[in-house]
Amino acid sequence: MKQPYRKAFKGRIGRGYFLGGLEFGHMGLRAVEGGRLTLTQMESARRSIRRGLNRAGLVWSRQQATIPVSRKPSEVRMGKGKGAVSHKVSKVRPGHILFEVGGNLPDDVAEAALSRAQNMLPRKTVVVRRSPSLANDLLR
Questions:
Q1: Tens-place pLDDT, residues 34-71
Q2: Residue 108 is inside which H or E element, if any?
Q3: Could you tell me the CATH number of the domain that includes residue 32?
Q4: Is 1 part of any domain?
């Protein structure tokens, strides 16, 4: 039977530094290292942000785990084709914004929630904030 979607190759993570900035919120979480993030890692980080904000404010997830990763079962001999899809990942370049936080939030609450999410991710990240002049323009 023909599969509806082709299994993806491993591929490479893009070289260089991603230069995009914050688009939606006033604080965000930027990746310092490149690598792959699984869907469960990103979801646990998002949940910890929501818990840290006490469900106030808004959270935007800027990365989507869309790349399927296949894995063969343990103790299976070599050959016989590629394994079944086991999970999905997102390729993250250094400089990518992973999450953004906005809304009517104090800065210390937003920064505490984002720093909690840093512990959930296997890559180094840093909390970034929008410059004060741009934040004032957004509030008008």
A1: 999 999 999 999 999 999 998 789 999 999 998 999 88
A2: helix 107-118
A3: 3.90.1170.10
A4: no
